[in-house]
């Protein structure tokens, strides 16, 4: 070690000074990280964002209290999006089985003003927007058609989604539901950071997804933001189940399915990993699937 000619003290070599400075920069750089960890087993920041997006999408009822039907919408899908019981939505809008809705219809998301839920059953359906003509020779909007006339001209008032065959008769009776696990894999999330009751099961891309119980497919598509390719099954008048982020949908709306029947293949969740998001709802409200699914062996 050299001695400083000015002070007579020992001086560090220049290389040593640089090492000290680099170490200090590294330590302060690590301490200055402003990222907060995301708590919970298997929960990533992207998982949290996706869950929050779903929660916002489900609960954010427009200020108008109405939903304007787009192509691909079903009554079940609309009710699911806003966290409502499909039976209430049907009553508020005087829509009867098989709950057919059309593009442009205005669906009430709350009971009519000054009326209770029970009284809402007597109200009339929300006034639809003028439908667009499906004629290739006339691309201008057609004038509104009376409901009775519209039923006689389905080509001018195309249904938002395929009409279920057999209506609710194909769904299981309103009794106990025999639940089973929809797929194999590791349970990586029992509850989302937002308190959502759905679970996340990891697995392999394109592995089979099965119906968790017998019932009728009431939604099959990708129109609900945050769920990817989604299937909703009605098991009885009380219970619905949902299977999100699928790679391929193997059933269509109106299909009757058995418990354990293959309905889809696993796709990728929001973080890019192969996984299934699974939910059960009772009277339109999410509940904890683990309270209904059987214990897993091993």
Give the structure's gist in a few sentences.
The protein is an alpha+beta fold and 298 residues long. It has helices at 14-31, 45-59, 75-81, 86-92, 147-152; strands at residues 2-3, 10-11, 66-68, 106-108, 186-189, 199-202, 208-210, 215-221, 229-234, 239-249, 256-257, 262-266, 275-282, 285-287. It has 2 domains: 57-162, no CATH class; 186-291, Glucose Permease (Domain IIA).
Counting structural domains, the number is: 2
What would the principal axes of the Cα set say about the shape?
globular
Poorly predicted tracts of residues:
25-45, 117-172
Structural class: alpha+beta
In N-to-C order, the SSE pattern is: EEHHEHHEHEEEEEEEEEE
How widely separated are the two ends? 65 Å
Report the portion of residues in β strands: 15-25%
Biggest sheet architecture: 10 strands, antiparallel
Helix content: 10-25%
Mean pLDDT: 72
User: What value does the Rg take, in angstroms?
Assistant: 27 Å
Q: What is the number of helical segments per DSSP (H or I, 4+ residues)?
A: 5
Number of strands: 14
């Amino acid at each position: 070690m050299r001695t400083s000619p000015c002070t007579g003290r020992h001086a560090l070599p220049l290389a040593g000074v640089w090492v000290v400075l680099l170490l200090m920069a590294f330590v302060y750089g690590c301490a200055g990280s402003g990222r907060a960890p995301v708590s919970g087993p298997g929960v990533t920041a992207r998982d949290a964002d996706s869950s929050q997006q779903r929660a916002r999408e489900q609960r954010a009822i427009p200020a108008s209290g109405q939903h304007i039907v787009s192509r691909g919408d079903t009554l079940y899908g609309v009710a699911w999006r806003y966290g409502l019981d499909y039976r209430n939505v049907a009553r508020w809008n005087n829509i009867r089985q098989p709950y057919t809705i059309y593009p442009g219809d205005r669906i009430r998301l709350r009971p009519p003003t000054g009326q209770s839920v029970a009284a809402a059953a007597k109200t009339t359906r929300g006034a639809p927007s003028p439908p667009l003509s499906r004629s290739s020779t006339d691309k201008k909007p057609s004038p509104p058609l009376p409901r009775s006339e519209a039923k006689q001209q389905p080509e001018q008032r195309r249904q938002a989604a395929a009409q279920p065959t057999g209506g609710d008769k194909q769904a299981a009776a309103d009794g106990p539901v025999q639940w089973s696990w929809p797929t194999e894999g590791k349970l990586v999330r029992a509850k989302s950071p937002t308190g959502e009751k759905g679970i996340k099961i990891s697995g392999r891309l394109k592995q089979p997804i099965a119906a968790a119980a017998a019932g009728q497919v009431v939604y099959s598509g990708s129109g609900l933001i945050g769920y990817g390719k989604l299937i909703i099954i009605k098991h009885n008048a009380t219970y619905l189940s949902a299977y999100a982020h699928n790679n391929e949908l193997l059933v269509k709306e109106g299909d009757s399915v058995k418990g354990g029947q293959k309905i889809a293949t696993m796709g990728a969740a929001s973080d890019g990993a192969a996984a299934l998001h699974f939910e059960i709802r009772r009277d339109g409200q999410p509940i904890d699937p683990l309270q209904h699914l059987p214990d897993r062996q091993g």
